[in-house]
Structures are given as C-alpha cells and as structure tokens.
C-alpha cells in the first residue's frame, strides 16, 4: 500500500500532518495561561523550535529539489548573502531582503541560461 | 439593541481582519504557497491532497517536512515524529498569542478552534496588530484574518497546481527559493528573544552537518542538539553578563 492510494493518503496526512501540528496548538492554548514567558523551559523550547526550522531552511537552500537542483551552489548561497545584506541595510525589512535574494537568483539563473 | 450593535461590530471586526489578506505578509505567504505547489507537483502528490493538506495542516514548514517525508518513503511513525518535532514551536507561539487574544468571555473551545489558524505569518500579523484592536473584538479580528488566509490559500493551491508544471524553469526556481528566504527574513524580523538569533545560526549549520552524519534523523538531531547548544550558549553568555558589575 503506497501513500497515494485513496483514503490511506488522507489518513496519512491527517495523522502525520494535522494531529502532529494541532496537538501543539491545543497544548499552546492550555499552556497560554500557565506558561511563564520568562521561564528557562520556554527559552529552551524556543531554541529547539527555531533550530529545527533553521535546519529545514538550510536543507532547502543546500539540497533543493526540482529546477534548483541543477543550479550551482555558489549562486544559491550568493543570493542568500545579497538578500541578508539588503535586509540589514534596509533596517531589517523582510520584503527588501526577500526581493534582493530573489532578484539575484533570477539574474544568475538567466545568465546561466535557465 | 445593545446586542444588535455588538453583533454588527463583531462582523465589522471580522471583515477588518479579513482585509489583512491584502497585507505584505499575506502576499508573500501566497507566493510561498505557489512555490509549495511547485514542490508538491514535482513530488507527484495529487492536487486534491495538496488542498486537503493546506487546510488541515496549515503551517508551511510542517507541510514541507511532511512532503519530504512522503518523498523519502518514510513510515507513518517516522513522518509523524518529524512533523511533531518540527511543530513544537507552535506551542509557545500559541501560548504567547492567547493572552493577547482572549477577552473576558472568550470560551476555551473557541480558542482551541482558532489556534488551528496559527502559523508564522498569522502569528506575526496578529502579534503586531491585535494590540490596536479593542479587546472584546480581538477574537473576531483574528478569526477574520486566519480563516480568510487559509481559505484563500486552499483556493490558490487548487487553481495554481495545474499551472505550476508549465512555469518556465526560471520562475519555478525562484518560487521554490521564496520559502527558505521568506522564513529566514521573517524569523529574524519577528524574533523577540536573543536566543532566537543564536538558535537560527546554529540550526543553519547543524542542519547540513547532521544531514552528512545521520541523514535519516538530521532535522530532529539538528533541532534538539543544535537548539540545546544554542540555549546553553545564550544562557552562559547571559549569566556572565549579569555577573559582571
């Protein structure tokens, strides 16, 4: 049985996707009253959560799927660096950093003949 | 008469929240969803399942991990574990938002229901704008924004899925790249605690490092190991700074 087979695919998404995320949202509601914002436990949870997302980000940049898998690594890293520089120069405005990174990537891809 | 007035303004605040669909964070999120569509189309996941996933999971990083697990042929238990661990951050996010949202008469079931609409974009949007909304209308405001954003992205994903395959490679590549770049910028921008910056930096290095050492559990190890390291380092730095006169 593979994941694309009818109800199993939906059950897979519901258990591994919906239950796995809403569980934390519900616990968040219940903890909302009790969890102290300055507690060391919450600080650790924050650090682990952020590091997890950062690891996903790094993997998407270093090991992309699809079209970008054929693009050179230096171009992807270069686009992120240009985006980061623009982001900080523009007083940390996300839109500026994102636009600069995408523009750099697009120029590079075009120059390479994509 | 008072009740009628009250209801009317609740609807008005719901619609005010719904108008947030035209804000910059919402537009960036929708572009990221087009990128996500491209990822799922390349992974061969049927469009009905992508729409279902968008509505029921909602958080984009969780969905990216879910799709990666599906692509690598992971078992249900492995996929559940990877998504669960990557979604821990939803708990403190919701816990921080609830005291801001809650009015004096807000029932718990409503908060449990509305918590489903919390993900990075809705959270950043709500934490920024909710303090300017009168407390008794905050729930309506957030419900308007959250539900509109989810519904719009479900429709978007259903419509765009069939177009994504025909995108020129340059456009498909840029849309894919929007997701990591958007997450980087929005996490840095919305961080309110020093430990977030340390954890972001450590995680960026730990992710590829653990992918190289133990590719099956890389995200998990990078999160727990890298996060604990970042927490310890930031704590040490904090206590040293406090100890100094």
What does this structure look like?
The complex is a heterodimer of chains A (114) and B (245). Chain A is built from four helices and no strands. By secondary structure, chain A is mainly α. Chain A has a domain at 71-114. The longest helix of chain A has 29 residues, at 6-34. Chain B contains twelve helices and no strands. Chain B has helices spanning 2-18, 24-43, 47-56, 60-71, 76-86, 90-101, 108-114, 120-129, 138-164, 169-190, 194-213, 218-243. The N and C termini of chain B lie far apart (62 Å). Classes of the chains: A mainly alpha (114), B mainly alpha (245). The interface between A and B is large, with 75 and 101 residues. Chain B: It holds the Pfam family AzlC. Chain A: It holds the Pfam family AzlD. Chain A: Keywords: Membrane, Transmembrane, Transmembrane helix. Chain A: It comes from Sinorhizobium americanum.
What keywords describe this structure?
heterodimer; A: about 110 residues; mainly alpha; 4 helices; flat; B: about 240 residues
Summarize the structure.
The complex is a heterodimer of chains A (114) and B (245). Chain A has 4 helices and no strands. Chain A is mainly α.
Task: Please state the overall shape of chain B, judged from the principal axes of the Cα atoms.
Answer: globular
| N-to-C order of helices and strands of chain A | HHHH
Structural class of chain A: mainly alpha
Beta content of chain A: under 5%
Flag low-confidence runs of chain A.
none
Overall strand count of chain A: 0
The stretches of 5 or more residues of chain B where confidence is low (pLDDT under 50) are none
Instruction: Count all strands of chain B and give the number.
Output: 0
Largest interface (C-beta under 8 Å) = A-B, 75 and 101 residues
Count the DSSP helices of chain A. 4
Q: The biggest beta sheet of chain B, please?
A: none
Enumerate how many helices of chain B there are, as a single number: 12
Strand content of chain B: under 5%
| Dominant shape of chain A | flat
Protein name (chain A): Branched-chain amino acid transport
InterPro entries (chain A): Brnchd-chn_aa_trnsp_AzlD
Keywords (chain A): Membrane, Transmembrane, Transmembrane helix
InterPro entries (chain B): Brnchd-chn_aa_trnsp_permease (IPR011606)
